[in-house]
Write a structure and sequence with these properties.
Blueprint (H helix, E strand, L loop, with lengths): L7 E6 L5 H10 L4 E4 L3 H8 L10 H9 L3 E3 L8 E6 L14 H11 L7 E4 L7 H11 L10 E4 L18 E5 L2 H11 L6 E3 L3 H32 L3 H8 L23 H13 L4 H11 L1 H15 L8 E5 L15 H10 L3 E5 L6 E3 L2 E5 L3 H7 L2 E4 L17 E4 L3 H5 L8 E3 L1
Parallel strand pairs: 1-2, 1-4, 2-3, 4-5, 5-6, 7-8, 9-10, 9-13, 10-12, 13-14, 14-15
Antiparallel strand pairs: 6-7, 11-12
Helix pairs in contact: 4-5, 7-9, 7-10, 9-10, 11-12
């Protein structure tokens, strides 16, 4: 195999929540990194030292630029890169399976520039078989053979937005190559800036590992969400139950109920596996489908509980003022992808409620074409609302002021429970 000389250590395809942190860590390790993105505005912002995601600050981008990083829309960069990592979105398609158009497009762009000796790694989450059945044929249309003329591998992204403890470097990196030599190349690459590299048998095992991680969470979240519904009806404090069960030092991991699941992983990834099982084997993945059904109905349940509380005050939803605290999908980030706040707000608006929201990370919010008013002082607004619903436990809400709520408060995250005993204020209600 003749190896083409390279001038770039790494080209990252996709400068989003996965690609940009990867580029930063590789750049910190001294690699010469180029970020490729099809959005000219994203590229211009990065080259000007401005970040567009939560976990990367402007100072981080400026430090990357000082270390030689550059962003570009020019696909020619792939011709001169020793390693190319694909970090593009894989949303759900209309039929419930993965929408691989971005992966296909990225693969075609790389194929047009692919040189002998290159290492290509897919990080985008997808169903088992994608690397071998979708990416490989596109790259091999060049006449180059995977595992012989170039290396091909899959390594699932494990980025957790907002996590201050675990990042790219100290989160073990799962790697599966098309061949043993491909695995060696991918492991050697990640070993330059990741502390621990975990090899799997092949690409399918690496792809499945990612889906197992998130399906495990999806199913267990659904379990406690369903328990939250019937524990409320039975008069059982589920949060107290979970706390008691969590004292067992083995065989139990605590999961907590909430208003629904959000983000790109938990609501999306298990569906890739369900779609693959049904398409390839002809039968449903019943655990995943049931978990999806339970988690998807939680926004309805939140609205139902809010209406129940209003009824105790003799109020109808159509004549009530509702305040939502937190509309992002998780605490202390600005990411709204698949946030349950949107379907909850939509149902409240359809019911005729006068709706407001507060979120320190979101400046304006439109729900299905309707602008929702933002308040700046959440404590004052909560005092005026008929019901306040805490949907995201931002640090700003983890305060004693929550325990002093003068009006009804529905806490879907157990934030008040963590602060103190909610029984001290009859206006506080847990999901």
């Amino acid at each position: 195999m003749n190896i083409t000389p390279t001038t770039t250590d790494l080209a990252v395809v996709g400068m989003g929540y996965v690609g940009l942190p990867l580029a930063r860590e590789a750049s910190r390790a001294g690699l010469k990194v180029v970020g490729f993105d099809v959005n000219p505005e994203t590229v211009a912002a990065l080259n000007s030292g401005r970040s567009h995601i939560d976990d990367i600050s402007d100072a981080d981008v400026q430090q990357m630029l000082a270390s030689g990083f550059t962003a570009t829309c020019d696909p020619q960069v792939h011709k001169h890169a020793a390693t190319i990592v694909i970090c593009v979105p894989t949303p759900l398609s209309n039929d419930g399976g993965p929408d691989l158009r971005a992966v296909v497009s990225a693969s075609e762009t790389i194929a047009a520039q692919l040189q002998p000796g290159a290492l290509v790694i897919l990080e985008s989450t997808t169903y088992p078989g994608t690397t071998d059945e979708v990416v490989r044929p596109i790259l091999e249309s060049t006449g180059l053979a995977a595992g012989i003329d170039f290396s091909l591998a899959f390594s699932p992204e494990r980025v957790d937005p907002g996590n201050q403890t675990f990042g790219i470097r100290n989160t073990p990196k799962v790697v599966g190559g098309l061949t043993a030599r491909c695995s060696d190349a991918a492991a050697a690459f990640y070993g330059k800036f990741v502390d621990t590299v975990v090899r799997t048998k092949g690409t399918r095992e690496a792809e499945m590992a990612k889906l197992l991680e998130n399906t495990y969470r999806h199913v267990n979240i659904a379990l406690v969400n369903e328990m939250a519904v019937f524990c409320h009806e039975l008069g059982i404090d589920l949060w107290n139950v979970i706390g008691a069960a969590a004292t067992k030092p083995f065989g139990f991991q605590a999961f907590y109920p909430g208003p629904g699941v959000g983000g790109h992983c938990i609501p999306i990834d298990p569906n890739y596996l369900s779609h693959r099982v049904k398409g390839a084997l002809g039968y449903p993945f019943r655990f995943v489908e049931l978990a999806e059904e339970i988690n998807n109905r939680m926004p309805d349940y939140v609205v139902h509980r809010a209406v129940e509380l209003l009824n105790t005050k003799g109020l109808a939803l159509s004549r009530s003022r509702i305040l939502l605290l937190g509309i992002t999908y998780k605490a202390d980030i600005a990411d709204q992808r698949e946030s349950p706040a949107e379907p909850i707000a939509a149902k409240l608006l359809v019911g005729g409620a006068s709706l407001q929201y507060h979120d320190p990370h979101i400046s304006d919010w439109t729900v299905r074409g309707q602008t929702v008013d933002k308040v700046t002082d959440w404590e004052a607004a909560a005092a005026q609302a008929d019901v306040t619903i805490l949907l995201t436990n931002h640090l700003q809400y983890q305060t004693e002021a929550l325990l002093l709520a003068p009006s009804l408060l529905l806490d879907t995250r157990g934030t008040a429970r963590a602060l103190n005993d909610t029984d001290k204020n009859p206006n506080l209600h847990l999901l």
